[in-house]
Specification:
By secondary structure, this protein is an alpha+beta fold. It is built from five helices and eight strands; from the N terminus they run E-E-H-E-E-E-H-E-E-E-H-H-H. Helix 1 runs antiparallel to helix 5 and helix 3 packs across helix 4. It is globular, with a radius of gyration of 17 Å.
């Protein structure tokens, strides 16, 4: 539920470097803070939130600064989406898991009015399953996809065991994502 006055942002989040693309379209309040957006992205994409992340606008990085290492990262805690994205087509880069280097483009597709009783965040569309955490980035994910397509591949059984035999790179369950987002909203 939108708790503060503001607008609704329709964001398209696309994982960079993967073809065919893996993407999600979510509606969020424009007043949402970056930590809350991070959680909504994690749930929508399907990541497990077990790694560091940052939002990048130009040369400015927002995240959780390390007090022992000043790398110029600005604290994301009180930054709201509407401070970084003000008009349709604005983009922000979201990086998750600095080791694997998963970069996402967040594009502000539409600015909408808040509808009475509207529940946010909500995922309205998406395509394809998220790569598993700790698979080695784009190259590692392509390696996994190759291996599970070829039962003769020497890594086939091991990778299927690691993934779980139910892993389908083409699957995306919108209803499941929204059930998790609804629980997160509270």
């Amino acid at each position: 539920m939108v708790r503060e006055l503001g607008q609704v942002y329709q964001l398209k989040i696309t994982l960079k470097g993967i073809r065919p693309p893996i993407w999600r379209r979510i509606l969020v309040p424009s007043t949402m803070t970056l930590p809350r957006l991070h959680q909504a992205i994690q749930i929508s994409i399907g990541w497990t939130d077990s790694h560091l992340h940052q939002f990048i606008v130009g040369r400015t990085r927002f995240g959780m600064p390390d007090p022992d290492y000043n790398d110029g990262t600005r604290n994301e805690k009180s930054v709201r989406i509407q401070q970084l994205m003000t008009q349709e087509k604005d983009t922000v880069t979201y990086e998750y898991d600095f080791g694997d280097g998963w970069e996402h483009e967040i594009k502000l597709e539409k600015i909408l009015s808040v509808e009475k009783g509207q529940r946010l965040p909500v995922c309205v569309a998406g395509k394809r399953a998220c790569p598993p955490d700790d698979c080695g980035g784009v190259g590692g994910y392509y390696h996994i996809l190759e291996a599970i397509e070829d039962p003769e591949n020497p890594e086939y059984e091991e990778i299927l065991y690691w993934l779980g035999e139910s892993f389908d790179p083409e699957e995306f369950d919108l209803q499941e994502v929204n059930e998790i987002l609804k629980a997160y909203e509270r």
